[in-house]
Amino acid sequence: METTLNECRPGDKVVIVRVSGEGPVKRRLMDMGVTRGAEILVRKVAPMGDPIEVNIRGYELTFRKADAGNIIIQKLES
Amino acid sequence: MSFKFALVGNPNCGKTTMFNEVTGSTQHVGNWPGVTVEKKEGKARRFKEDIRVIDLPGIYSLSPYSLEEIISRNYILEEKPDVVINIVDATNIERNLYLTTQLIELGIPVVVALNMMDALESRGDQIDIPRLEKQLGVPVIPTSANKAQGTKELIEKSLQVAQSAATGQLGESITIFDEQIKKSLDELLSFITPQCNQVYPPRFATVKLLEGDEIVIAKLQPNSAFMALITTTRGRLEQEYDNDMETIVADQRYQFISKVISKSVKKKLSVGGLTVSDKIDKILTHRILAIPLFLLVMYVVFTITFGFIGTFTIDYIDHLINVTLADAVTTLLHSAGAAEWLDSLIVGGIIAGLGSILVFVPQIMILFFFLAILEDSGYMSRAAFMMDRLLRKIGLSGKSFIPMIMGIGCSVPAIMATRTLENEKDRRLTIILTPFMSCGARLPVYALFAAAFFANAQSLVIFSLYILGMVVAILSGILLRKTLFKGEAEAFVMELPPYRIPTIKGLMIHMWDKGKGFIKKAGTVIFAASVIIWFGQTFDFSLHMVEEVSDSIFGSVGAFIAPFFAPLGFGDWRSSVALLTGFVAKEAVVATMGILNNLGEVGEGSVELMASLQTYFTPLKAYAFMTFTLLYMPCIAAFAAIKREMNSWKWTLFTVGYQTGTAWIVSFIVYQGGKLLGLG
């Protein structure tokens, strides 16, 4: 089932289907390896509820929930 | 023969350690022309050839979206180093190779230093280096810079490449893109070669033109027919791949990397398994424990820096300079029969002025030592992660949190700590806001006035000033973000590097780098300013030495500007002069008040001074005066730090003007509002 990354919970394993949106944030996400086909493990949510931390391509990355909303994913398992 | 090697790599890949290892003490730090990004250069030790090593900023990509990226790109393209040494973190190879795929298009020979091999091996992972070399088309040297392993081989290999590299592009033979994109690129390539060969390497130029890189387009100025071809090609590809061109290119780079990795990297741990670092992180960023732990860390750093150790070093150095040294110099000058004005200039002006700054050096060093630990260990980025939500409200990101909190101790190191912010807009805004955090030097002023006028609510009044400073910072942040710093706030996309135990050597270099800069550069500004202030306090306009400060240039200026403060409730010339001397150091306000009330040098606990102040201040006026002291332009040391970090007189003067203007307006509101409410 396709959904967006901001809908996921810590512990979810997902694969990126597509990154929508545009501009510098998207470009930065792509540079950091958030591209189609990459697997993501959602690690945690910051103590104040935003941003989130994920494991991608073997390292830890953080970005805001608003930007996670532009990342369309497919859940692998939960 | 002489050579130029450029070090390029992602942040946290061990590039700085590598640079320190290769160049040792030969390095020097400057700024890239016109920007506040540091430029480090040095010479490779232990080699008879003359090798200059340039440390380029840590970057993730060569896109034209950040200052650091543009600097690195321009340096490589314009200065044409003999070899680009690309430091790749072996434990995070997938993302690190993304930059590599861009570097090999730049037409400069690349040597990959596969760093942190020790960490990789202890994790049990393996990398097939000959295979990786073949796939990337460039030499790969395994290194562990923190253990000085492989660095000699790295420089030897780079030398060998530099000496034989007349042939140029080593990575030319490999193909990153799929058939279809490659075909389109080749098509454009045949078009482009004649006109761009001089400016950009053709392969790089075609990719960038296709992506629509504005800098490259502006420089190459393709004619309309060529531009049309580019646009149609881009349109066709975007439709076929159902995405925008930049995304397609990034996608393909990562697909290429995935292919490379699958063949040459063997991982022991499955994706997402827990390392030691992950386990530490589970506690430090725990949903409930994280914030209390963070406050505890901050509390410890502050008590040590600004508490007993810091105070001890300040008192000790103060005594050393203002008593021991000053007395010795006075004796020396007397025995040499020097004129009174010379004695006054050297002892009262220069020694006192430099002393007021030098006393902070050990404290700054201690603070930077702790900050180096927080940064090198990886905790700093977790603090940003935790605080981002809070700071977003004032148009900043989590990365601004550390400088702001340090401002409560002292604005000087706080301003210098903004260097960790990569976005220039965010950095400037943070520098402007940081001095609103009430620093330690303002406390004696509050202590004096609170005791004299608010005897029953002293701590409440002082606490309210700290809060007022924060409120003003928040409101200023919102205001400036909506006006001067308009536009999209910096994206918060940040790597959280694994926790590492910092090396003592690394910490020392880190600390010394910043402390040295403070002594050297701030020193020159402060030296000049001390002389000017001494002059203003000692002479009158006809250049005669005066007995009473009220007759001096400062006294006259104080009387002249006093009406400016009248609407704020303290239009008395003594208050004006005190505020003027507060520019040297905020705590000087108290000393000046003592002198001007004919009480000589007194401390903030002086009963006589309080009685004297009570004759011309009311509680409301006192509060307005404290408000002004809190917000107006910071002391000269902070001024010098602002100038250094802004690297622009325009911004420095704006900062100081904005702060003083804000101080005036807020004090005006406090005083006039208070009067309206009948508190006068």
TrEMBL record, chain A:
InterPro entries, per database record: Fe-transptr_FeoA-like (IPR007167), FeoA (IPR052713), FeoA_core_dom (IPR038157), Transcriptional_repressor_C (IPR008988)
GO molecular function, one term: transition metal ion binding
SUPFAM superfamilies found in the cross-reference section: C-terminal domain of transcriptional repressors (SSF50037)
Domain Ferrous iron transporter FeoA-like positions: 3-75
Keywords: Iron
Protein name: Iron transporter FeoA
Gene source species: Paenibacillus glacialis
UniProtKB/TrEMBL annotation, chain B:
InterPro entries per UniProt: Fe2_transport_prot-B (IPR003373), Fe2_transport_prot_B_C (IPR011640), FeoB_Cyto (IPR041069), FeoB_GTPase (IPR050860), G_FEOB_dom (IPR030389), Gate_dom (IPR011642), P-loop_NTPase (IPR027417)
Record-level Gene Ontology MF annotations: ferrous iron transmembrane transporter activity; GTP binding; metal ion binding
Annotated binding of Mg(2+), by residue: 20, 23-24
Protein keywords: Cell inner membrane, Cell membrane, GTP-binding, Ion transport, Iron, Iron transport, Magnesium, Membrane, Metal-binding, Nucleotide-binding, Transmembrane, Transmembrane helix, Transport
Transmembrane spans: 288-310, 345-374, 394-417, 429-454, 460-480, 518-537, 552-570, 577-600, 620-642, 651-671
A GO cellular component entry from the record: plasma membrane
Main localisation: membrane
PANTHER family hit by this protein: FE(2+) TRANSPORTER FEOB, FERROUS IRON TRANSPORT PROTEIN B
UniProt protein name: Ferrous iron transport protein B
Native source species: Paenibacillus glacialis
